[in-house]
Probable GTP-binding protein EngB (Xylanibacter ruminicola), 197 residues
Amino acid sequence: MEIKKAEFTLSAPMESMCPKDTKPEYAFIGRSNVGKSSLINMLTGKKNLAKTSATPGKTLLINHFIINNEWYLVDLPGYGFAKRSKKEVQKLEQMINGYILQREQLVNVFLLIDIRLEAQKIDLEFMEWMGTSSVPFAIIFTKADKLSASKVLQNLNAYKKVLSETWEELPPIFVTSSEKKQGRDEVLDYIEQINKG
Ligand code: GTP
Ligand code: MG
């Protein structure tokens, strides 16, 4: 799919303040610093569309980006950032969970996972929560450029093995690098297929 236009729409602290629109939305979620905002920039080909940072906790609101005037990419705050007060963690959790559960036009969540790490409890639990809430999701492994191709495959297979302990059917899985623009066509084609219905 060709990205002809990608523009920031608005930032909102809760679902009810998100754009009043019915176009399909694709949201990016995952631990702080996993590369959600970088991936949005890579997919749209706009380097500074979503704000990124080497320090975790950069994205703190629900950010909508309208693509080709037809659908939205949604950048969410990360979860699991240790250096936060309990109150802050709860606030962000409410923001993320509320958006995911209430947003009717949300057609798919992309859960981002750092390909370098072994399966983390917090991500597995988030997947289970989406499963029980009937939220369609796909997994995007990030930062593939940080490992050799063989190590990427090894980690990918190890992760699939962990997933198959809980999931009868594995979700769609993508391997990406925002640095090397790897996985761009695959993710965009997947979105295009869903948009076509
Ligand atoms: P929060 O908004 O804080 O939750 O983080 P985020 O998930 O949006 O991460 P962000 O896109 O801001 O990226 C975090 C850091 O990882 C930045 O320093 C990025 O440059 C780096 N990064 C993201 N994706 C990649 C990638 O594919 N490869 C490499 N090498 N670095 C990446
Ligand atoms: Mg971010």
